[in-house]
Amino acid sequence: MRPRPAPPHPARRPASVLVALLGLAVLLAGCGLRLETPAPQAPEPDAVETVRQRATADALALQVLADSLAASGAEAGLAAAAGTVAAASTAHLDALGGLYVAFPDATAAPDASDASDATVDPDPAASPGPTATTVPSPVTPDALVALLDSSAASARADAAAVEDGDLARLLASVTVARTQLADSVAALAALDPASRPALEPAPLAGLPAGVDPADVADVVQSEDALGFAWEVVAARRVGDERSAAAARARSHREHAETWAVAAEVAATDSDPRRVAYALPPTVLDAAADPAATAAELAALEVSLVASYAGLVAQADAGERTPLVDAMLTAARSATALTGQTPAFPGLPEHAG
Fold first, then answer.
1. pTM score of the predicted model
2. Domain limits at 204?
3. Is the peptide bond before 138 cis (omega within 30 degrees of 0)?
């Protein structure tokens, strides 16, 4: 019997053929030919990233416009105010993380200093979410106030709706800063108040979902204590100063009542309000320097802004607008005492 033939081996390419193919590949590579591959797709920004992009675009537009106004030969006070807007907007841009870059490892982020007075749009092909923010022309105080107001309204809406509580807190602070900066520029430019959109505080319909009742109780007590402090100050002043202090006292007492009712602690054993409060010695001293008294009161107002900002971070999306508006009210009281508008009202980690 003949031996059975061995099974056939798989076909193999001769070594000479493999060498030839390798040489052809090298030749084609040297000629610049390559197989077609699809272009890399820019990542699609999610809802939180879209909000962040919109806020950064507004911050860059404000920076460009304010810098232009400061360099335009405006009156010294207006130029200084515009410089403050530019500095705050630069700080906001940094805190928000800068402009969106689809491929950060391959592309350097745009330099804000290279921006012109044209449309500000951080790579619209890669970031389809936010609309472009256009820097107004000509550069005037009216245009700067209008952009501050519109961008503040945008940040206020986004702070209310975004799912990220920490981003909402930052946007709330940006809202308050932009609104107060608009107040400052409008006052220096003697603009008609009727030319600005009226900001109606959002009504408080119950306790915002998500907030800690214990922290709300702290706010109730802080508002009430500030009302007591202003009553003490009003008792020691005369004329218009007494009337202004009394009005602030009433405002704080009313806010305390509003929040106590919302938290359902008003007139209960859980009501944190007291008959009297321990106040800083300067506030109690009738002979104290008025500037020192104002500084103490401002510190209390600033602390209240921070308390409201903390509640913004806690509150559920859709529940934050009354808290943002309360931040603005307290921040305006602090600014009225100090004459200063911080870049980040209510965010002590950004102070200094």
1. 0.80
2. 200-338
3. yes
